[in-house]
Design goal:
By secondary structure, this protein is of the alpha/beta class. 42% of the residues lie in helices and 16% in strands. The chain has helices at 20-32, 57-68, 79-83, 89-96, 109-113, 121-127, 141-156, 172-180, 191-200; strands at residues 6-13, 37-42, 74-76, 101-108, 128-133, 161-162.
């Protein structure tokens, strides 16, 4: 806690399934933003993309509990699933906002670049400090990121800060493809998550 405010991190996503790249991002977020508490919030229905088939919101919530359950100062929340419908970040930020809290919102590169297209982006920037982590090593994106941050500063008075930890290039889409092929997932997802996927026959 700094200046009398709790530093609260919010990491949302489909997590279909949660993998070791998500875990690495959560650890970096906790450390670099000096968070007092990190919320992991699986979406009910993502507004920006089609949900992956082969699981249920309850499956994704349980997998997040298995994946993130041992991280310190971390809470897996069902708030968006319980709310139902499309999961809009601005609604979640409003629900978590307090005078004694400073909210930090973790994004991937693609989400960072499209933030101005989200529902009520000016309110997102007002309620939280967005932070992004590169999940790919494509240097061509750097110029776009710089340009977007200039736009955000002019429009909303804030930039999207960057976590400095190295990216872990793992894709949930690729993992689902491996599952359908019957390939092993060692090193890609936590063992408890793989066991759950196999037991429930998800993504086959």
């Amino acid at each position: 806690m700094l200046n009398g405010q709790m530093r609260i991190g919010i990491y949302g996503g489909t997590f279909a399934p949660p993998h070791n790249g998500h875990l690495a991002a959560a650890r970096a977020f906790l450390s670099e933003m000096q968070l007092d508490l990190l919320y992991i919030i699986p979406t009910a229905a993502p507004p920006h993309k089609e949900a992956a088939s082969g699981d249920t919101p309850e499956d994704r919530l349980r997998m997040c509990e298995l994946a993130f359950g041992n991280l310190p100062r971390t809470l897996v929340s069902d708030m968006e699933i319980a709310r139902g419908g499309k999961s809009y970040t601005v609604d979640t930020l409003r629900a978590l906002s307090r005078e004694d809290r400073r909210l930090f919102l973790l994004l991937g590169t693609d989400m960072m670049l499209s933030l101005s297209e989200w529902r009520e982006p000016e309110e997102i920037f007002r309620l939280a400090y967005p932070v992004y982590m590169r999940r790919e090593s494509d240097p061509i994106l750097e110029a776009r990121i710089v340009g977007k941050n200039k736009e955000y500063l002019e429009r909303y008075g804030k930039i999207v800060r960057r976590l400095t930890a190295p990216c872990v290039e793992i894709s949930s889409t690729d993992i689902r493809t491996l599952i359908r092929a019957g390939a092993p997932l060692a090193g890609l997802v936590p063992p408890a998550v793989e066991a759950y996927i196999r037991e429930k026959k998800l993504y086959v």
